Amino acid sequence: MKILCVSDTHGQVSELERIIPIEDNIDFLLHAGDHITDVESIEKDNFNIVKVKGNRDRGCEGNLDELIYIEDKKILLTHGHRYRAKYGLSNLAYKAVELEADIVVFGHTHKSLQVQEDDILYLNPGSLTYPRDGQASYGIIEINEGEIKSEIKAL
């Protein structure tokens, strides 16, 4: 399974639309919040979309967290603001352990991050539009036969 991970698109649909043809054979698109309505214009015939609300998604329909099962892995999708992600991973880690998640995909910081701690992959794809680390980015996760591979890609 190939999973495209994005966050913090902030109304810039063109950047999101630019990525999809680049990444062949996407099975899932995960949007970790802040302008989740951006995915509504995306052609979704070939993949599933799961999205969660961020701190800038007031008035939008959706959940703040989603627990997704792909193959034999559990993925916690959240924006991160409720877990104070700007100040570290500890609150996200507590939630991940509580849910027995294998992967946590989050946003909010506008900085990409990919780290493995205590058998949990934490992936923040950064921001497609307003990166705070100098480079617009997104994430790819591949799950094949129980093995997880991930990478952050610059736009």
TrEMBL record:
Superkingdom per UniProt: Bacteria
InterPro entries documented for this protein: Calcineurin-like_PHP_lpxH, Metallo-depent_PP-like, Phosphodiesterase_MJ0936/Vps29
UniProt keywords, alphabetically: Metal-binding
Family statement: Belongs to the metallophosphoesterase superfamily. YfcE family.
Designated name of the protein: Phosphoesterase
Named cofactor requirement(s): a divalent metal cation
UniProt entry tagged with the keyword Metal-binding: yes
